[in-house]
Design brief:
alpha+beta; D-Maltodextrin-Binding Protein, domain 2; 8-stranded mixed beta sheet; 6 helices; binds 6-O-phosphono-alpha-D-fructofuranose
Length: about 290
Amino acid sequence: MSVQMEDTVDAVLDAVASATPDIRGGLVGRRSYQDTENESGERQLAADVYADRLLEERLGAIDGVAEYASEEREGVVDVGEGDADVDGALAVAVDPLDGSSNLKSNNAMGTILAVYDASIPARGRDLVASAFVLYGPITTMTVARDGEVVEYEVVDGDRRVRDADVTIPDDPVVYGFGGRVPDWHDDFEAYVREIEQELKLRYGGAMIADVNQVVEYGGVFAYPSLESAPDGKLRLQFEGNPIGHIVETAGGASSDGTRSLLDVEPDGDVHQRVPLHVGNEALIDRLEAALD
Ligand code: P6P
């Protein structure tokens, strides 16, 4: 990666960290639903729209960022000079508030960031950095970049290293699976019946909070293919690629049921959905064998 690109990645990560007090502070008073839906047909909270506009403003102002895409927007927004496919400019994709339905119940949620050195929709292998911010009892930011995962505590918008080498533990402890049980495919349900004999259930409705438990304690998280939704619920550009990148960089594995999430071919739809499974490699291997 060029020095210019490294500097742009630094600026993007700093911008997301510095936006956290505004996003977290902006949650208060924005718990109401707008009369709008996002491109995935999900009702938008005032907080979703606020976080999306704030991130576009901050990220779009960075030299070297050419494209901004968001789970809350229909298409990709050209925000700067350059072409992410040609001259080293970068394209950023965000889920501004992952798990925003948890706001009404005052549970954890966060922001997901993907930084690609290719135009969006891009491949997971085009990621140069991925991150998620977790608004929990404290605000943390977990970043995958250059083959390592670093967890920061974010205080007043500044990042302080909390764990310089985040690695998923060898012995798994927790699991969390989205979707309704009657909507699971039989082969996935058979896998669940094995896992639930071995691990403890941790599922809270905000993927990054659940994934953070998997990265912290070891285990597996999935929002699988469903009978009613063969491609599952989560989006490749904003969730599958960055979360797969973070978990794989932390020594775990990811899968769409067949292959690494980072090898899933974009189909041209920015809001392409993908079955998402991440966790300890042995558990993902068992999952792929079960779905085979
Ligand atoms: P369900 C939040 O809406 C989200 O996109 C993920 O963060 C979370 O894992 C999932 O959807 C929760 O979906 O169907 O359990 O409400």
